[in-house]
Amino acid sequence: MNPILRRLQGAAVGQAGALFRIASHPIGGGGGLRRAALGPIAAALGDKDDLSGSVIMITGASSGIGEAAARRVALAGATVLLVARSADRLERIAAEIDAAGPGTAEARPCDLSDLEAIDALCDGVLADHPAVDVLVNNAGRSIRRSVDNSGDRFHDFQRTMQLNYFAAIRLILRLLPAMREQRHGQVVNVSSAGVQIRTPRFSGYIASKAALEAFSDAVQAEALADGVRFTTISMPLVRTPMITPTKQYEGIPALTPEEAGSLVSEAIVGRPRRVAPPFAHIFSTVDTISPEAMDALRSRVYRMFPE
Predict the structure, then answer these.
(1) 165, 205, 249, 302: which is the annotated catalytic residue?
(2) In the annotation, is 205 catalytic?
(3) What pTM does this model have?
């Protein structure tokens, strides 16, 4: 085994692991920022983290971060719209959420790679609800492959853009008008700390997430006066099925889906603009000051790990 990888895996246990997890935990929202950041929705939420009356759509809700976030916001009283391809899993999760209360859940199966299916989803939702108060773009596809091995796999880039970017944009375009009309709402984009780091071998995934971040930054200025907040969560590594194919991640410290779901629910209450782990802020700052230094570091990481 690569000695550097062995050292990283060793950091997953004991005091080193605890310190690594602290440095990886995103900061930037919730806590003391909540009451100040609520804006027009503060009166609706009251003095507690109460989401009663809020309609929250979460994509990728059949497992991992999406499922964990859905369960947490439902415990705060929200009506959660569960979106994913697997109707059976969504129905099971919805039934469990309804039984636990106090919030409720609706299974809304949809293939987000199909833009017409997204339109049908939004038509059905807006027929049943005046508006979606919070849209959580959590569904995503990650592909680890170097450019050397991507020459005949252009479809990898198309697939990541389709789910991570175009699907999210389609949902935003369909749901944003009702948010603006009611003069409050939020779009939470579950992104990746890799956008700040520019992780080698993940160019397709990183580019699709960066595109969604740039779109949201531009649209935030247009929707700001209408009480709509765009929140970007730059997630560190999370132990979900998405990272399973990358064997190098086995044993490396990562957040649990429940911890990541908690970050999403805190962002819904606190409404920050950005949430990111400390190391991502550091890498982004270094990259701004000296791109050459980060190029050298990324090149070393690229050569350090096998394909």
Answers:
(1) 205
(2) yes
(3) 0.81
